[in-house]
Each structure stands twice: as C-alpha cells, then as structure tokens.
Sequence to fold (146 residues):
Amino acid sequence: MPALTRSYETFERPGLVVSYRISNTRIFKGALVGVNASGFLVPMAHGTAGLRFVGVANESVDNSAGTAGSRSVNITKSGSFLMIPISGLTLTQADIGKVAYANTDWEIQLASAGLTNQYIVGTIVALETSSTGQSAARVRIDNYSV
Fold:
C-alpha cells in the first residue's frame, strides 16, 4: 500500500483507561491483570502461562459463572499503584528502582526465583503503607503494560 496522499482520520482515543473483555473469572478492583492466550482478561498469576500484563483493574467484575467475553472491565494502563510484597519479603529503601515481578494479582516480588512464569509489572518508585495497613511498594507500571 502506498504512503498517504491525503489526510487520514485515526480516531484517536486516549489510552489511559481501556475496557477489556473478561474471561470466565472474577477480577477485583486493584488487581494486576493480563490477557491470556485467547485474549481475555484474567488476574495475573505466575502459575498461569502465556499472560501479557495490561494494567490494574479499576473495578470489581464477577464473570465466574458467565461466558468468556460476556462482560468487560476497565483497566488503567499507566501510573503507579500500591502492591504488597510476598510473605517474607521486607522491602528497603535500596529497592527503589528495581523491577517488580507479579506473584499473584496483588503480590509482587523482586527476584524471578521461584516463579513458574516471570511477568514484570513495573518499577518500584516508593515504599508506603497500603489501605489495609500493610507495608507496600508503589509500583509504576508505565512501559510494562501492553
């Protein structure tokens, strides 16, 4: 196909929040989520093969009794979010700037050891306290969500 010879309307849509069709599962608000090999949204879990990280869920949606694709959920694809370190991991100021790997849909770890599949979900930018009172890492997902 040749190069443009006249204007072409691309119908720009800001990509900060995108709606994805959900698999037959439950997604909770605040979950790290990815699309599976079929293209449907599922919670991130290192034990699930073939995921592509897409962002953080803006809302809770239960489609566990539904058909894959019958419901959608809005996902934020940019910014920073508080995630909990895996049990036994104590984060320190020296961990700022390190990449975070998804262990579950809300737990992160700093090393890929012990992970069945290694999904990087962002960079640690700060240490804070979560809404549940736990020590947490503020993880910036920019450049890691597809």
Notes: The chain is about 0% helix and 40% strand. The chain has a mean pLDDT of 95. The longest strand covers residues 120-129.
